[in-house]
Fold this sequence. Notes:
Strand order of the largest sheet: 1-2-4-3-5-6-9-10
Strand content: 15-25%
Helix content: 25-40%
Distance between the termini: 20 Å
Number of strands: 10
Amino acid sequence: xxxxxxxxxxxxxxxxxxxxxxxxxxxxxxxxxxxxxxxxxxxxxxxxxxxxxxxxxxxxxxxxxxxxxxxxxxxxxxxxxxxxxxxxxxxxxxxxxxxxxxxxxxxxxxxxxxxxxxxxxxxxxxxxxxxxxxxxxxxxxxxxxxxxxxxxxxxxxxxxxxxxxxxxxxxxxxxxxxxxxxxxxxxxxxxxxxxxxxxxxxxxxxxxxxxxxxxxxxxxxxxxxxxxxxxxxxxxxxxxxxxxxxxxxxxxxxxxxxxxxxxxxxxxxxxxxxxxxxxxxxxxxxxxxxxxx
Length: 293
């Protein structure tokens, strides 16, 4: 891994969306073309530091914390809808006058970004989604067999469970660091430590807890239909790069047929990588990314 964390880090900034106080980091270089880096679920904006450090000389890099994540405010009612996430992204791009913007996004961030790019195709110059198409067609078909009353009952039970679930407390950052290493075996100790240090808050009693709201774990009982999402994908006009790790649980759109909904997309798979390709194969990812951008 050749890229290192830049000793001159980003500046923290705040914007507002649906009355929520949301956080993002700005890596400077405002005269350069804008590049948005959007993280995935239960993650945070500083997970992009290696990518940002490698690209900040050529780009004006901005990385937001999704609502309920990182240093962004938690939703008061515990609801985290895809529509809300898309609105937050639209607000950041609108308020900071970033369009037409280039976006690199991971997982949940990819799902949000792909929808945004279908709603506002003229606002996105290029798009990279790392495992960002959401659940596989097989998973969605299974979910589609369940009636709305079943889905609602499951969601209500899940919400009740989460309401009583206290944030896990770690006696030390070292304990949280070990949990981070368990989550992704590909991470180097340096990567895991950096992600942990930026991913926890210290509690009043001296223990540490992850920054994300436990309610972000819930799967909403209803969302856009599959047909609506596929329609948005088909409206994306910019060149798109869909990246997958060959050791990941995620379903590759080249294999499951979802690539057919994209007018101008290419799929690239990485050996020796799981769900976090930009961590697991950083050098290869940066090479592919620079070539695409």
